[in-house]
Amino acid sequence: MSIIDFEARAASCATAAPQPTPLVSLRDVHLAFGETEVLKGIDVEVKQGQAVSIIGPSGSGKSTILRCITGLLRPQRGAIEVGGVRVDGLRTESELIGLRRRVGFVFQQYNLFPHLSVLQNLVISPVKVGGEPRARAEARARELLAKVRMEHKESAYPGELSGGQQQRVAIARALALRPELILFDEVTSALDPEMVGEVLTVIRDLVQDGLTCMLVTHEMRFAEEVSDTVYFTEAGRIVESGSPARLFGAPASERTRAFLQRASGASAPRKGAPDPIETYLTFDPLRLAV
Ligand SMILES: Nc1ncnc2c1ncn2[C@@H]1O[C@H](COP(=O)(O)OP(=O)(O)OP(=O)(O)O)[C@@H](O)[C@H]1O
Ligand SMILES: [Mg+2]
């Protein structure tokens, strides 16, 4: 199809104005650990190219929502779709690997492979999981390192990098499998303040490039700046959602207002020791591929 055909088709689609199907949709998602209900009817939609932030108090279920989207956790009720695939219906390891090639996930703990150089950290999954020729994977890895401004460190080992540098490499590694969607779970919470900005700059660039992103963050100003939609969670429910201007400027709920007031008074909570559950659940395509 020529560019002109493509433009004509795009124009005719525009006049028909169909609502784009969301890339991600959660409908009435309920999840409990034993007797403890953690998600109590979550509805979220993310359209292609959007950046959506989830904010809310500690323990309100933000990370659990992201883990459900990657298939790491399975809800007891409700439906989760990513790109037309029912995630809650996936059963086999190979189906889950298929999903995780499409959904990148970056955590607070960067979990780079310590015995591999920066470049090899980016190359290993596309080669071993994606079956890409090594030379092509290396060329792409170099492009991605340039994107996260880490091209000068391709031969370094993770232990030789600062936290912010490691997190930027972790973002590049998540991009190496060419995901359609990337999930960021508090990726700056473990960083020293001076490194937060460099990681946020990388995420801002990705959002501007049109990559579909979901961000769980305590960086309220950043969420306000980059998001198309913000969701506020409390005790396993979405209290409200809306444009950042509306949610931050004129929150409908008293609970959102109180949370935002507390968040603006205190700087972002920083965490110390890694959460063992998070470490255990960390997405590692190689582990899954075994
Ligand atoms: N594997 C698990 N087993 C039992 N309870 C869990 C498990 N994972 C999470 N929880 C509980 O579920 C609730 C929601 O946890 P979640 O990690 O989603 O919160 P969060 O909003 O991401 O919090 P934070 O801002 O501190 O990261 C918490 O009460 C947590 O203790
Ligand atoms: Mg969390």
From TrEMBL:
<keyword id="KW-1003">Cell membrane</keyword>
<dbReference type="GO" id="GO:0016887">
    <property type="term" value="F:ATP hydrolysis activity"/>
</dbReference>
<keyword id="KW-0378">Hydrolase</keyword>
<dbReference type="Pfam" id="PF00005">
    <property type="entry name" value="ABC_tran"/>
</dbReference>
<keyword id="KW-0813">Transport</keyword>
<dbReference type="InterPro" id="IPR030679">
    <property type="entry name" value="ABC_ATPase_HisP-typ"/>
</dbReference>
<dbReference type="GO" id="GO:0005524">
    <property type="term" value="F:ATP binding"/>
</dbReference>
<keyword id="KW-0547">Nucleotide-binding</keyword>
<dbReference type="InterPro" id="IPR003593">
    <property type="entry name" value="AAA+_ATPase"/>
</dbReference>
<dbReference type="InterPro" id="IPR050086">
    <property type="entry name" value="MetN_ABC_transporter-like"/>
</dbReference>
<keyword id="KW-0472">Membrane</keyword>
<dbReference type="InterPro" id="IPR017871">
    <property type="entry name" value="ABC_transporter-like_CS"/>
</dbReference>
<dbReference type="InterPro" id="IPR027417">
    <property type="entry name" value="P-loop_NTPase"/>
</dbReference>
<protein>
    <submittedName>
        <fullName>L-cystine import ATP-binding protein TcyC</fullName>
        <ecNumber>3.6.3.-</ecNumber>
    </submittedName>
</protein>
<dbReference type="GO" id="GO:0015424">
    <property type="term" value="F:ABC-type amino acid transporter activity"/>
</dbReference>
<dbReference type="InterPro" id="IPR003439">
    <property type="entry name" value="ABC_transporter-like_ATP-bd"/>
</dbReference>
<keyword id="KW-0067">ATP-binding</keyword>
<keyword id="KW-0029">Amino-acid transport</keyword>
<comment type="similarity">
    <text>Belongs to the ABC transporter superfamily.</text>
</comment>
<feature type="domain" description="ABC transporter">
    <location>
        <begin position="24"/>
        <end position="260"/>
    </location>
</feature>
<dbReference type="GO" id="GO:0005886">
    <property type="term" value="C:plasma membrane"/>
</dbReference>
